[in-house]
Amino acid sequence: MQITLACVVAALLAVVVRKGAPEAALLLGLAAAVAALLALTGSLRELMNFFTELTARAGVANEIFLPLYKTVGIALVVKIGTGLCKDAGAAALASAVEIAGAVCALLAALPLLEKALDVLLELMG
Asked: DSSP labels for 23-50?
């Protein structure tokens, strides 16, 4: 709730500042995004510990889920980067960030896809 409130206040300030100094408004948005992410580090650490414990209890190697974690991280970074590019009025750059994010997510997911293919081939014969 606090992060949402801080981001909304920063967005309102950016709207006011944008008329006189668009660069400052973009920097304000970037600073608010970084502050929000830093505020989430404890929660993210707790979430990662939960998933690590869950995979250990299930008897599944943590390396199997590592590509999934990476992909989610990439998606979050791309979402923020795209939003910042759009705020700066750079729609083409926002599209490039999305494409780069999709490529990186697929690359991060390759080990998981290879494992799935190995399991399928093993089941088939």
From this structure: HHHHHHHHHHHHHHHHHTHHHHHHHHHH
Instruction: Name the percent of the chain lying above pLDDT 70.
Output: 100
Judge if 20 and 48 occupy the same domain. no
51 within 8 A of 66, measured Cβ to Cβ: no
Helices (H), 40-90: 41-58, 62-87
48 and 92 inside one domain: yes
What residue numbers bound the domain in which 24 lies?
1-39
Q: What is the pLDDT of residues 52-109, one digit of tens each?
A: 888 888 887 777 788 888 999 899 999 989 988 888 888 999 999 999 999 999 999 9
What type of residue is 82? T
Helix-then-strand count for the chain, H and E: 5, 0
Q: What is the total count of domains within the chain? A: 2
